[in-house]
Amino acid sequence: MNYDNRLPSVLREALSSRPLNRLSNVRPSYIEAAVLVPLVVENEEHKVLFTKRSQNVVHHKGQMSFPGGSRDDGDTSMEETALRETFEEIGVPASDIEILGKLDYALTVTSNFVIHPFVGIVPFPYDFIISVAEVESIVNIPLGVFHPENIKNRRQVIQIEGGTYAGPAYEYEGDIIWGATARIMENLMDIIGHKLTLPVLEK
């Protein structure tokens, strides 16, 4: 089994003891948004919960993403934005999420969002309530897929959505994680990958 029960404590400590990269190239036109990077334990293995976006959303149709969205006027913090959006998209209330910390800011290339990513533990199994208007499905991917030593899935040039994308990309059972979502995962694994017992996929 690929289970390391130190994950919550290691991640909490790692995220609280490092300065955030807040980015220097954020323009006033960028929209503030927040996402939750949900970690679950399934069959004694750490996995990351992704949402596959529906074709009905305005931005990033059909892409692998995290629960999240833009800040509402009533949100008192970006963490509240991430938790609210998670409840709206997959039906997990804030009371069931253990926030471990915050990752570096990330920018989307075409939709002009500056993303505040928060990492949290979500109970599993769980009776998720999916908002079909926003989410097509939930996909759990083993954390080891994103291992820093898994060279074959780090930094690729891929053809996607009619264009060429150069940057971190990961593929798992036909699903491709790329763009800001992949950069967020790369950031997470750069911080903790070497501190945990995780499998390295065959090269």
Tell me the CATH topology of the domain at 7-22 and 29-145: Nucleoside Triphosphate Pyrophosphohydrolase
How many DSSP-defined strands?
A: 12
Radius of gyration: 16 Å
Mean pLDDT: 85
The CATH superfamily of the domain at 7-22 and 29-145 appears as Nucleoside Triphosphate Pyrophosphohydrolase
SSE class: alpha+beta
How helical, in percent, are the residues? 10-25%
Spans of at least 5 consecutive residues with low confidence: none
Description:
Helix content is 18%, strand content 33%. It has helices at residues 7-16, 78-90, 179-192, and strands at residues 31-42, 45-53, 64-65, 68-70, 98-102, 106-107, 113-121, 135-142, 156-160, 163-167, 170-172, 175-177. It has a domain at 7-22 and 29-145: Nucleoside Triphosphate Pyrophosphohydrolase. It is α+β, with helices and mostly antiparallel strands and 203 residues long. The longest helix is centred in the C-terminal third of the chain and has 14 residues, at 179-192. The model has no long low-confidence stretch (mean pLDDT 85). The strands form three sheets. Strands 1, 2, 3, 4, 5, 6, 7 and 8 form an eight-stranded mixed β-sheet that branches. A two-stranded antiparallel sheet has the order 9-10.
